[in-house]
Records
---
Amino acid sequence: MQVCTIDALLAGGFDGHVECRELLRHGDFGLGTFDRLDGEMVVLDGIVYQIKADGSVTRPDLGLKTPFAAVCRFETTKTLEPDGGIDLKTFEGFLEACIPDRNVFCAIRLDGTFAEMTTRSVPAQDPPYPLLVDVAKKQSVFRFENIRGTIVGFRCPSFVQGINVPGYHLHFISDDRTRGGHILNFRLATGTCRIGLCHRFLLQLPESNRAFQDLDLSKDRSAELQTIER
Amino acid sequence: MQVCTIDALLAGGFDGHVECRELLRHGDFGLGTFDRLDGEMVVLDGIVYQIKADGSVTRPDLGLKTPFAAVCRFETTKTLEPDGGIDLKTFEGFLEACIPDRNVFCAIRLDGTFAEMTTRSVPAQDPPYPLLVDVAKKQSVFRFENIRGTIVGFRCPSFVQGINVPGYHLHFISDDRTRGGHILNFRLATGTCRIGLCHRFLLQLPESNRAFQDLDLSKDRSAELQTIER
């Protein structure tokens, strides 16, 4: 289940409209952001974590709303053992080879130890909201070494362009739940990766939200997406 | 609820994988096609109609599968009285003015009498399947005059490109359920239009269907879509 579209977020649609509580009715695993773009979201084992721009990690009130999130009930289709030493790009190549089903959704969970993990988070914004690409210029970047934790994310098929991130979108949370964020890169020490294929996709759009209806979602924002994802 | 993507259909993914019976669990109103591209589908008041390339209209066995269809539970948000004499293009302009909510899904039902109605249907194909754009070259076109019936269709937001038809996609069935098809144009005599806004969109992708996984859905097929829709 997905709340709103990535292009609405890119266009500055930062007002939350679905409560975290509602997200958890649809899934126990996923990622997103929060009302006013207040940090990165990780949903893991049915718990919502908020990684703020100051690096702090909290479990938000479940009444907090999200403008963009994607969750699923994680069910393992396949278990993989990626080689130690690989970085994000190599990991993606590894998954391409292991999961030929390119036209469905793929939930990705990697529990492991990371020699290096680089993440980012974004600060809460005030209306009138800027474009996400402009917020990302002021993102906080965190670098961790020898950290145990979990990668939580998705590989989406190419046809979700405008709706979600085609390809890989991965967030991270540490085992002790004190660090995390949107993954920019990592170097794996050792870990186990579980993949869950999803053949159903439920999109929930805002109801009675004038700001959403007024967003120009006909524009191709793939270049902006490329900029903020890496 | 939508079965598969329009780009999979454009790419020749004509094998049905969801039964009509299952479609009716998700909605009583909609459109699509059938296994092997065997005609145009109209779902109206909970009944599935099949308009074949020979012009015949039947109620298919509900075990028949579809490779592409979109249905919803029709609930009227707004009732409109379009002017008599308008054609398809003017009707679309009329709806643009009446329904400013461009970023959600819109079910469109127009019950009326049509001075002219032009539709098409497509013949069943055998594997290896051609592209839809090539099948459309051999489509049957039907022209009716002074016909009573119902327009059944959707206006989809721009961000569904690759997944469904951005903009308008309308099918027709006559009151006596003997004629119909995918609408190419019409001239309205008199009618009442009901609009239902939809904020949830459920996409069902094929499970364990190798042919679907092998389709190249990364290609921009919007020009092909433009060709076959009008």
---
Amino acid sequence: MTSHLWFHEVGQHHFGIQIRVRRTLCHVQSPYQEIMLLETEGMGRMMILDGCVMLTERDEFLYHEMLAHPAMCSHPNPKRVLVIGGGDGGTVRELLRYPEIESIDLVELDEQVVRVSQEFLPEISAGLTDPRVTMHFRDGVVFLEERTNTYDIIFIDSTDPVGPAAGLIAQEFFANCKRALRGQGIVVMQSESPFVHAKEIKQIHHNLRPVFPNPQLYLSPMLSYPSGWWSFTMVSEKFDARRDFVEERCHRVSKQLEYYNPAIHQSAFTLPNFVQRMLNEPQDA
Amino acid sequence: MTSHLWFHEVGQHHFGIQIRVRRTLCHVQSPYQEIMLLETEGMGRMMILDGCVMLTERDEFLYHEMLAHPAMCSHPNPKRVLVIGGGDGGTVRELLRYPEIESIDLVELDEQVVRVSQEFLPEISAGLTDPRVTMHFRDGVVFLEERTNTYDIIFIDSTDPVGPAAGLIAQEFFANCKRALRGQGIVVMQSESPFVHAKEIKQIHHNLRPVFPNPQLYLSPMLSYPSGWWSFTMVSEKFDARRDFVEERCHRVSKQLEYYNPAIHQSAFTLPNFVQRMLNEPQDA
């Protein structure tokens, strides 16, 4: 017998997704947000924060691989890294594939996201207890104000840039990221859907450019996020994702992966015409 | 006031989409299928055949550009072409962008699809009355049995390969395609979603290989189709999409387009690891 419980998420353009739910494993209100952990009929377990799908077990590899690896394979020597958000542990799991990494700071505002993940998503969150990982249950914006010259790469694994995560796309935040980098590192962030979040992408790039003049957008499919297609943005004063690509490292790590490989590294930065035009439009267009 | 009418399409994995509908413009049963033409709140007008979204005005450019242009830019001299299915006219609209094309045969089983498109989707279907286009309201499988040495490129713009369209992925059909090509042309087809139709893609490639040994899969986002990500397959005895790429033609046509451009031509054929593995699996795995 199949369940009659459905999860619905409707986004821009009155367009949404629906997923059949077998049972509710956890449904709590943390100090910051509503957290749901659902077992679906066909997409594995699913985490939902304030009504937005954060991950399903079936497709989370897409998002986590594509947030973690392109930057890791564009830096010559990444040893110390920071993840802001990402309390489910998926990004950390990907980073731990690299013996090059000596330490990972994870800054997650909401400790309950980590606890729920550790209870119900053990395969995704397992890396959070790795000795190379230090967890900080704090506001990423405040945490970063206190850091200087520390990280080779900063990964911003945030929820949508509204509410608790709005500060993570401010120009001051990006300036603090730059100061927290050791030498000339890389900052990479999820940057919403090119189909339904043009305004948000333009805002992010507008706020980035005074700090990092040439943000590089790249793209990946992502089933369970609005529109099924997602963007990421990588910035650096020194490194270019294509020119400074570390092919040997990419080749090595991609053997363990489902999506990312050397050819994908290059092609992900290829932008369709409408995305190129969007990025060239004035911010308020 | 927003409408309370919603269209739902649930596919594999108990995963689906939902789109808010402002009004129903047409809802008929043709001899072949149920045809709905809906005006949505945020995706423009939408055509639905037997419960499956065929197109929305907001995202049809993705599918039609990516079905038409990669093959058109991989053939040195495409003059005579055939479209099987595609009664909405979107593929023909893309093909008419090429002055190189002298004639287009469109073979659509269901005349009512064309009539409904001409009434409610005039911008998509306008090209169907172009003097270079000849419409045939027939079964594409039978039509092709009668053709020999005729076309430079055959575009298979079909619905899902079940019911009326099942014959369009049979090995005999592909052999007839080969015979209908003039010299060594190209056949290109929509080939379902790499996320949710692995079985169908493997079936298509299994049936293709005895006729065309090296099918080339390529990928594109597609919001309103299941999983938001779609595949196409191009085959030819002679032409390779990357090696025989006609960059000048691509550069020229892409100025009129929203998605496709020379860099996209190359990157669309880049396959993620799990898709490569899927194509290497036995057909019944």
---
Amino acid sequence: MEYQYYMPTKVIAGENCIVKNSSVFSSLGTKAILVTGTGSAKKNGSLQDVLEALESVGIESILFDKIMSNPTIDIVYEGAELAKKEKADFVIAIGGGSPMDAGKAIALLASQDIKEEELFSGNYENKVFPMAFVPTTAGTGSEVTPYSILTNDKAQTKTSIASPLLFPKVAFLDARYMMGLGQATTINTAIDALSHAVEGMLSVRATAMSDFYAVESTKILAECLRELRVSSESVISLELRERLLHASMLAGIVISHTGTTAVHSMGYSLTYFKDIDHGRANGLLLPSFLEFIKESKPERVEQILSLMNCEDTRAFRSLLEDLLGKKETITEEEIKTYSSIAIKAKNIANGIVIAKEEDLQKIFRESLN
Amino acid sequence: MEYQYYMPTKVIAGENCIVKNSSVFSSLGTKAILVTGTGSAKKNGSLQDVLEALESVGIESILFDKIMSNPTIDIVYEGAELAKKEKADFVIAIGGGSPMDAGKAIALLASQDIKEEELFSGNYENKVFPMAFVPTTAGTGSEVTPYSILTNDKAQTKTSIASPLLFPKVAFLDARYMMGLGQATTINTAIDALSHAVEGMLSVRATAMSDFYAVESTKILAECLRELRVSSESVISLELRERLLHASMLAGIVISHTGTTAVHSMGYSLTYFKDIDHGRANGLLLPSFLEFIKESKPERVEQILSLMNCEDTRAFRSLLEDLLGKKETITEEEIKTYSSIAIKAKNIANGIVIAKEEDLQKIFRESLN
């Protein structure tokens, strides 16, 4: 039994956990930069709770609410400049994957000078602003990973910064902030979490310890996804959202240890070129990826299908198709372009079966036509 | 779903993991104090591996090999003095619970001045020597807890120091060091781990997250204990020992969050006054404690019995009796003394059913006569 396990983030979960635990912020610094998207943190109550908590412990803050979906390198440098100018000394990121990913890069860039061409190198000094994260979707798991995924226009895809420095000090999980999320976003983000758990089990870096988290997460998500399939938007309960947020966090711990696989590399093209939501992109690709793996490693795929309560890969495909609805289409030319980009990604080599470029083409073809 | 989760120790598991990961030591300091018992670390190869790893990265060390079973307050002050005198700046503790518990106190006392009467107060400055831990038994889980349990002669029991400062930076889990452990020690320590997992489930502080670890640990230990029941000493395989070490670590994560319950408070008297091994003491008491809890909370006990693959509490008692063999006896006077001490312990209030002094007496009486 060989493994390494490391996840130093303190996770605080529960209704109103930010205000109840406001003293935590005092241990992080004296002035916070609040990193958010343009709208949702204001609407769902999370920003207000953070401001209330900060006020109660007398900590100042400055708002940086410019993070777009799939954040760019420019925006994180802009945030870091603001943090320095305003003499902030810690980061609070509030939102889905995008503000959290941007928050990590800002925490790094505000604490040390890193040139743009060195940003993806991993060669950093051992310092970073402390971070507190407030996920407002249940999917990315970024609150417990050492990754920051940024849009990399030079490589025409998304690329990750990975460093143990990027683990937040604290993650606050309060599912109330998700109550206003629509059915489609809830499903897409849940499928993102599922993709993390499943890809973690299909990674060469999987261990007894990562499987422990992946198995639990997959089981919870299998139940949640079936409930989402039959529910209409108005009846997604707080209780269901809490399970989704918990499972998404567990799946984040999985990929912290295993990384992701070809599904993510391929999905990034669908997001970069066709603006397909990240979780949805993974969900579109996952059934054919499972079938591809099954040819060489049937036992592992059977284990995953059993956790999903699916008789076979067809049942798994059918569950995801019900959730994702009408699929986007893709041309042969796009298939070739995207496969040629995805094959260069680091996480291709991470699979228990290593996909060749023609395998990626076949998966794209089966998944979107 | 409300919980807090925090376990910042990096766990590195596998054969020869210390030498393979010697670079880890360079991140901890420049001179180590090695805290061990009087003999076993030298015999089982663990000390030699640590010295080899330190030499390979050019780190000096000083050996403090005086830790007795159930370490005293005097010995940890002596160790801290040596660390200061020798200008060590980090601690490597190697051994069972005693050297690890002592190592934590030494790491704390070497970094700041704490008077003996303040030692159990929890009021410390925010500094401690970094620690690397090498468990050589599978039971205490101390490598992933924020507790140091010391013999407290004033209170005539064992008392714990608890502080997040006491989490080691790194834990190395290599089951090879356990290959020479006898059947009785292997069983006693495994039962200590089981007691942690089960008491964690019987704690008012149990959460979805602590249960996640407790359920996995209990399931693994239930299998391992059955294998230990039928195996003779010579056939305890490395593979079985690896599962025990893994389960013990998981159970350590449980009590880091839940604390222990009356079983531990009561067991400390059996250890303090009658020199009964800590794990064995817990094992002697656990069946009657389960029966006591079952009167008020039958569902929770049923859940534990099901994880243990035991039909009822009698089957659970029978499994433990097979493992523990002939029991020690106890007089009525001892029962009264020990109960009056145990009832004062903090962890009594931790149970999902709070035991009164007469409940403790009844449990002692049933367990040891």
---
Amino acid sequence: MSEGTIRMIEKRIGILGGGQLGKMIFQAGSTMLLDISFLDKSSDYPAGLITKNFTEGDIANYDDIIAFGQNMDVISIEIERVNVEALKVLKEAGKDVFPSPEIIGLIQDKGDQKKFYKDHGFDTSPFILVDSTEDIYEGLKNGSISYPFVQKSRRGGYDGRGVAVINGQNEIHKILEGPCVIEEKVDIDKEIAVLVCRNKGGEVAIYDPVEMVFDDEANLLDYQLAPAAISRDQNINIHELALKMASKLDLVGLLAIELFLDKEGNIIVNEMAPRPHNSGHHTIEACYTGQYENLLRAILNLPLGCPDIISPSILVNLLGSPDYRGETVYSGISEIMNLRGANLHLYGKNETRPHRKMGHVTILHEEHYSPHESKDIIKRVFKTVPKILYNE
Amino acid sequence: MSEGTIRMIEKRIGILGGGQLGKMIFQAGSTMLLDISFLDKSSDYPAGLITKNFTEGDIANYDDIIAFGQNMDVISIEIERVNVEALKVLKEAGKDVFPSPEIIGLIQDKGDQKKFYKDHGFDTSPFILVDSTEDIYEGLKNGSISYPFVQKSRRGGYDGRGVAVINGQNEIHKILEGPCVIEEKVDIDKEIAVLVCRNKGGEVAIYDPVEMVFDDEANLLDYQLAPAAISRDQNINIHELALKMASKLDLVGLLAIELFLDKEGNIIVNEMAPRPHNSGHHTIEACYTGQYENLLRAILNLPLGCPDIISPSILVNLLGSPDYRGETVYSGISEIMNLRGANLHLYGKNETRPHRKMGHVTILHEEHYSPHESKDIIKRVFKTVPKILYNE
């Protein structure tokens, strides 16, 4: 990385987190000639693969963020588990911090998120906040909690962790420790995500909602369809919801909103993330302007790019094989490349773990083509093979 | 760049040349987790912006290429002005060199190129080879050369340099020194380019022909349309020509073929480049699989990606302002970003020169949209402003 490069805009952008989302932010930024640096534990992380502007440090550590942020003009995140106090101080000191520390703080606490939805008139499943497992047992006794219910840890949950679905008394061993949200279980018809981007001047770009089909056993995404197969009215209502949410939050940057459609067609807010999101990976190839580029445009207060779809797509995550942990060799790549319209993204994580996100494939498709068949092929062929076995 | 990253394929890819084509090769490769290094004069060049795997050296120098290539498994080029002898030695030593040194050698000499077209039955404008300006004067006297004619230096021409169009005796001062090709001037209706990719196993992907509209004064591309507005039959004939050319050359990698359609509809081969090409920039966003990714797939003998168009596009080069040379500040970026479907690529060249390629914009468009209007806006707003003026 040449330090002396003349940039499109002479602003230093610092991103907290250097995983795959950071890598894809950097890729979008390198096309536009932006100056982007990362803070995260190890420069072996995916973003470290494509830039040497990588500072090793802890994004949960106050001092590390202050030291990193002092050299930046604009600070953003690729993950919300960051030290918010440090971001507040940097914002006070005149740095552009997008999304705002206040939004990040709100998102970090699923209890506060739920209160925000309720206070601002967004439909969300009925809930109570409890401090301990004792409170749950008490609630079950006195009838304030009833089966089936969903328990979410207020802090630290991620990718299916920190969430328990308790269908009856026989599943009570799954209850998690600590302060949490107890929600009524929604009778889900579809899970939908919508991505909204807003710049400092208030310009908004809303991506078409996508449909996420989950593997119930692993509580992980099986595949994603874009656009979602929903009615025109639902589409409009979800766009309006996203617009209102971005406005109420005074968002600058990206916000992914995960929604349930229940069996009666109601749109129910589940949770949000104020950053690039897995549900927007397809936008790189399938939309006029991808989420990563629009994030950068937004935080630099440039005009936003068009979020419309160029081509329908299906997205499949490439997950670490369930039976292996350690150094990986990738397997099945040739078969994936053989699929028409397949865009392979490998993130560059040296260690594979069961169900770890190692990459994704976005398949662009036309009418005379079966994306579902491709999805099945990808899920069958992709494996992270133990290096020791591969070398034999 | 983490040295220890586990790659999709454990092969080191070395690219001769580190300009904007190299940068875009690297971007495609980083998504697929490939290990790509560059050789060129300065790591300040565009590819040096996104990787530290950049060796400073001269791609015309035998020793520099040998030293660089020894550490690689697969060697390719982003520009054809390289030392072919060194590549032959590396190939002999067992390295994969694609395109072959023989193809690169053929392309380096426009006289040999013309003989190849003639020998293999490709239509090309009638020509003679001459060694000096005296031969041209002699030819004009004895009638073997007549006005108007096109003179092309056999070696070293690039981007409109090394080409003179001599319409009559009053333009004879434009004649170039040295060995050259003298061609009959074609009565051009359209200038077309077609891009073909072929892997080691013989699999071929052919991109739809594009139409290049030239600015006659500067002898530079004004804009490019993809797909070209040509008949179905012309399309088929050009595909067949590309397929035959790739086969006759035993090509592995990419080949861009520039063609003339004359006023009678004949398809005439002008010249070729065995590498990623400006006429294929749009394929990054506008095709299922872009030229850069397909080059990498081809030289690694992976299945090729689908070259079909997802969306029509118009491409405009961002050229250095005609009145300025030196350190640049970019101007007009916001206006470009405001255009629906515009994809901005800035290459990262610190020094601007008159008409230097500083970047390009690919505009994806739908029916209800005027790409030509956008093209005019881009050409009006983009400027490389002298830094010294900008700071005042």
